[in-house]
User: Fold these one by one.
Assistant:
Number 1:
Amino acid sequence: MKNGFRNFLIVIITICGTWYIIQYAGLGLNLKGIRSAGSKLYLSEKDKSSDADNINIDKELVLVNSEHGLGKYYKPESLTIPDISFANGVSQEEKHVAGIIERPLEELVDAAKRDGVILFGNSGYRSYKSQENTYSNRVKSQGEKLADAYVAKPGFSEHQTGLCIDITNQDKNIIKGTKEANWLAENCYKFGFIIRYPYGKKSITGIEYEPWHIRYVGKNAAKYIHDNEITLEEYLGK
Ligand SMILES: [Zn+2]
C-alpha cells in the first residue's frame, strides 16, 4: 500500500513535470516566435519604407524634378520652423523646413537684412498630401493640361524635400530685377543655397524662371553651381 502510494506519487509528479516542461518549453518557443515575427515585421516595414521612399535621398543633393519623384510617405527629418518672418497667410505646414537648412536660412535672411533687403518666408515644406490637394484642385478648376503646366504632380515637387523655400518681399512680388531677386541671385550661394530654376534654363530644369525659389545644396555645391552658372541637373550630370 505504502509502495503503491509512492509509485502513484512518482507517476503524478512525472506527469506534472513533463506537462510543465512541455508547456514551458512550448511557451518559450511561442514567445520567441512572436518576438522574431514582430521584429521581422518591423524590419520589413522599415526596409520597405526606405526602399520606396528614400531611394533618391542623398541628403542635400537629392534631385527632385518631373523625372525623379519622392515616395508618398517621404517626410524630411526634423522638420522645424526657422526663426524668420513669414508673409501673411502662410500655412503652418509651409512654415516648416528640413532641420539641416534652418540655420543657413536664418543666416541668409539676417545677412540680407544687414544689406537693407527684407525677405519673408512664403512656402517651405509641402507634404505629399497637400501637393495632392493643390494638384487635384487645379485639375478641377483648369483641367489637366493647365494643371500640369503650373503645378507639380504629388511626389514631384521639390517642396516635399523640405530643402527649399519660396522667398517673398513686402509686396509679395519677387520678380526679375527686384532688389530681393538680385540679392538672392548674388548671395544665396554663400549660405549653401541656389536659385533652383534660373532664367533661361527651362529646357534643363523643366520649370520657368523662379527667382524666389531657393534650394539648399550645401556650400560647396552651391558655390560651384553659382560660379559656373549651371543647374542642379547639370551639376549632378543628369
Ligand atoms: Zn517653390
Note: Residues 159, 164, 166, 213 surround zinc ion (CB under 6 Å).
Number 2:
Amino acid sequence: MRIFNVKTIIVGGSATGMGVAARLKRNDPNATIVVYQEKSYVSLGACGLPYFVAGNFSDPNNLIARSITAFEENGIIIVPNTQVFKIDFENKLVYFDNKTDSYDNLVIATGATPYIPPLVGVELKNVYTLTTLEDGIELKKAMQNPNIKNVAVIGAGFIGLEMSETLSELNKNVHLFELEERISPNAFDPEFSQFIKENLEKNKINVHLSTKVTEIKGTDQVQAVVLADNSLIEVDAVVLALGFRPNTEILRNTKLALAENGAIIIDETGHTNIDHVYSGGDAATSSNYITGELIYSPLATVASKIARVIADNIANKPAKFVGSIRSAVVRVFDLGYARTGLGEFEAKKQGYQIRTVLIKDKDQTNYVNGQTDLYLKIIMDIKSRQILGAQMSGAVKAMQRINTLAALIWSKVPVDEALEQIDLIYAPPFARTTDILHIALAKLNK
Ligand SMILES: Cc1cc2nc3c(=O)[nH]c(=O)nc-3n(C[C@H](O)[C@H](O)[C@H](O)COP(=O)(O)OP(=O)(O)OC[C@H]3O[C@@H](n4cnc5c(N)ncnc54)[C@H](O)[C@@H]3O)c2cc1C
C-alpha cells in the first residue's frame, strides 16, 4: 500500500524506532521517515553489552545491528546526535537544537534509562551503569585496570546477574547487593532464586540479600559502600543495576497519558491517547497475554514485535500486539535460568486456583558426556487445566525447552493425557526418551 505525502517522525533510534523505520519503509517505499536519535549510532543491541565487557568480542561495532549508512541507503533519513527536547502535539511539531520539524505520524521510541538511586557518592568516578555503547566501552576499559579488584554490583535482576558473571570472569571479587530477600523476585519463584544464589556462591560471588546500600564512599574514586547497618565493604568500583525508568521526562505535563512509572500508555495497536502518536518498547506499556493487564516489560522481545505492529498500523495495515508472557532467560556462569508466563505468587494474586509441580531430572542420557541436573516448575490453572507459567534451570543448552512451555501457554491447550504424550525430540546427547516435560505433565495429570 502506498502512503503519499505522509511523513513519520521517529524519536529514538534503537530496537523500537529502527524496527518501525525499517518495516514502514518496506510497507511503503515512498514513505518519508525521519529518525531523531540522540546518539551517534542507531540500532544498538544492548543485550550484548555484558559479553562485550567480558571480552567475548573486541569490536564494539558488533553491537550495532545496522549502520546509519545502511538505513540511509534504504531512504530513511536519520538525524544523529540530536535530542528532541519538546513535542507540541497540538501543532504536530518536534523541537530539537533551536529548530522544529513537523510530522503527520509520530513514534516515540525513546526507550529507558537506568534508575540511579539518590545515594551520597553516586556521582563518584568508578560508579557505572550499562545501557549505552559508551557505557560498555568505558566499563570495559575501567575493568582492565588491575587496581580495580573489588566491585559492588547493586541489584540482582538480570543485568546484575550478567554483570556478576562478567566481572568475575575479569577476575574481580564481586559483591552483589539486593534489597529484597531473594534474587530476581520479579522474574523467579523462591526455589529458582535459591538455585541462582547457590550457583553465584559456588562461583565465589559474595551475595548480600536483604541488604540496602545507603552510601558510596570515596573522595574522587570509589573506596567503599556503606550498608544500612552502618557496616562498610571496601570496593574499587560500583555497577548500578537497579532497573529502568521509561525515558519520558519531556512528556510530563503534556496531554500524553502516562502510567505511574512514566511509561507511555498504548493500546494493542501501539497507539497512544493522542491521534497519530504511537509508542512502544522500553518507553511504553505493554499487556500481559494471559491476564490482559497493562504491564511494563522492557525487553527486546517486546520492542521488536510492537515495532512491526506500529509500522503496519501507520501503513493502514491493521495489526495488533497481543501481549507478552515475559519469557526470558539469563545465563549465570555455566547454568541458565528461564521463565515464562505467571509466577506462582502472580497467579494466586490473579485469583487462579493453581496446581504446581517442581521436577528434578537430567537433561540427557548419562552415557554421553555433559549430563546435568535440570529443574522444571509448572504452574497450572486447576479449572481450565491450562498452563499459566513455567520456570526452569539447568545447563545452558537445555534452556530452549522453555519455548515449548511458552507455546503451550500461548495456545492455551489443556493439560490432558494427549498432551502428556507430546512428541518431543530425542537423541542421547539432547534428551532422554521421557523428557522432564513429560514427567511434569504426567504429574499434573495425576
Ligand atoms: C545490558 C542490557 C542487557 C539486555 N539484555 C536483554 C536480553 O537478553 N533480552 C531482552 O529481551 N532484552 C534485553 N535488554 C533490553 C533491551 O535492550 C531493550 O528492551 C531494547 O533495547 C528496547 O529498545 P527501545 O528502542 O525501546 O529502547 P532503547 O534501546 O532504550 O533505545 C532508545 C533510543 O532513543 C534515544 N533517545 C532517548 N531519548 C531521546 C530523545 N529525546 N531524542 C532523541 N533520541 C532519544 C536513546 O539514546 C536510545 O538510543 C537488555 C538491556 C540492557 C541495557
Note: The radius of gyration is 23 Å.
Number 3:
Amino acid sequence: MTGVQRRTFLWGAVAAGAGALLPATALPGAALAEASPGGAITSRSVGAFDVVALRDSTDTFPATRTEMFPDATDADWRRARRADPGAFGPGLAWKLDFRCYAVRRPGGRIALVDAGVGPAGSPGSTWAAPGVLPDLLAAAHLDVADVDLVVLTHVHEDHMGWSVSTDGVPTFPNARYVVQRTEVARLAENSPMRDYLIVPLQRTGQLHEISGEVRLAGARGSRLTAIPTPGHTVGHQSVLVDGHGRRMMITGDVLVHAVQLVNPDVRYALEADQAVAAETRRTLLADARRRRTTLATAHLTSPFTDPYRP
Ligand SMILES: [Zn+2]
C-alpha cells in the first residue's frame, strides 16, 4: 500500500476518548505504576537506565483486525488473545495503545523514543485520539528541557506527534532528533510529513540523520543503540537498551499486534515491504528469545513483553 493510499485509508476515521489523565502527585520509579490509573506510566530498569513507558493515547483502530492481518489463522488469533487480551474489542475491533518510551540515564539526561499521536490538530489526531504525553512527562518528573535525544523509530503520524507543535516549533529545545537517513529520504519533497516534521527540525538544526547501527548514548556500562529494523517502513529503526546483563528492545512498529508476536509471519496490511518486515520480525523475536530481551512495543496494550518466558 502506498503512502497516499495509507493516508486516504486512515483519514476520516473516528477518534475516541483520550487516555486517562494522571493525578498531579504521581511518584517516580516503581511507585508510578500505582500512581497511574490504567497503567499510563510504567517503568523498568535496564542496567544504569530507567525505561519509562508513557501511554500517549489509546483507541480503536479504524479498520477491523481481520482486514489488517488477513492471513492470520483462527489458531493465531486464539494465541494472540491469550498474549494480549486487551487488544480485542467487541466483534473484530482492534484496540491499541500509542506509546512512547523515555530512557532516563544517570545524571538526569533523557532519551525519548517516539513521540506519540500528538495534540489535537496533529496529523495523527485525524485518525487516533489526541495524546496526553506532556501530562505524563510532568507526572513522571521528566523535564522537557532534560530531553537531549528524541529517537523516531519511523516517520508515521502516530510516532512523531509531539515532536513539534502544530505551528512548527520543536517541543524538546535541547534535543537532537535522530532518524534514519533512508526514512527521511523516502518522504517526497511535498509530503505533509516532511512539511510538518522535517522542515521545522532542519530550520532549528535539530534533525540528526543516521545510517545503520549507531551507538547513541552510554553510561556506567549501559548503552543505547539504534538498530535498523526495516520493513514497516524502509528506514524503520529500533532502540536497544542494554547493560549489566539486561536487554530491552524498543521496537516501534516491528510488530503492531500480538498476532505478529505469536506468529511473526503474519503480515500487516500497512507494511511498506511485507517480506522484509516478516524477516525483520523473525530475526528480532528469535534473538530476543535466545538473549532474553524484553520487548517494549508501541501498540500492544501492555508496555513490556518477555518473549523468552513461556
Ligand atoms: Zn504505529
Note: Residues 3-305 form a domain with the Metallo-beta-lactamase; Chain A fold (CATH 3.60.15.10).
